[in-house]
Write a structure and sequence with these properties.
single chain, 322 residues, alpha/beta, 4-stranded antiparallel beta sheet, 14 helices
Length: 322
Amino acid sequence: MQSTSFLFPGQGSQRVGMGRDLRDTYADIVAPLFRAADDILGFELSQLCFAGPEDRLERTDITQPAIFIASLAAHRVLAEMLPAPVVVAGHSLGEYTALVAAGVLDWTDALTLVRRRGMLMAEVNESTPGAMAAALGLPGAEVERICAAVRDDTGEVVEVANYNADDQTVVSGSVAGVTEFTSRATGLGLPEVKVKRLKVGAPFHSSMMAAVEAEFAAELGRVRFADPVIPVIANVTAQPVTTGERAREALRAQLAGSVRWSESLRAVHGFGVDAFIEVGPGRVLTGLCKRAYPEIANYSAGDARRIQSLVAEADAVRAEAV
């Protein structure tokens, strides 16, 4: 593991208990981080991560800072034990953690941004309720075609939100638009095609987010963005951002733009990495990496047990090299 990549998860990876064992096992590193986050936000985010309740943790305005801080805690631990990665990336919300890891954002600024991002996204859903669904077994181009046909025929919003893999694409839009997309996709009669409605709090990464884009851009404008010290791949371009200003613009565009995750993974792979390490709760990105690049070592590092196993393997590899 000489050339690793750190990948940070997004919304949907949350679970009650995330970060608790890291706090207990690596108290000196992790406990102050959670305490500081509680102080900054003005409520006990740490307890929502550690103990729930689940229904509150799943609220978009809570989920986003919760996943961010749990991922950052895992990163803080890994940074003490492993060499720095050669490249980082994050899926949607995870891009904020990646930018912290790359030295672009101060973590306190990133926490404030993701909290505000979650609040604005939730506001959109309250005024114009939306939905998201994962289409499995269809290439992205076919998903785009069905989305365009639904828009043309009904006037409803449905667009590609995430290009996760060659045969896994997430759509986002109005409830009626996503429902009609689901009907048409499953109506193709292909046994491999499945469409699964996602439990989310807003129509993320769709034009429905344009209503809050200007307000969020103003929030981004109040925060300092430094130039990255290691390459970080932007969701909307699937290319490295080379300056702080480009990172700021990428986050603005990401709010209503598509997450090009499969292309982003291709860009990460292009750095010659010998390991993908998912840093944070859940194993969604681990699964996508295994499917796309089964020949590359793949690790999940969201809890103490997995981090300890990863570090032990890395130490053994280094010892053999010597």
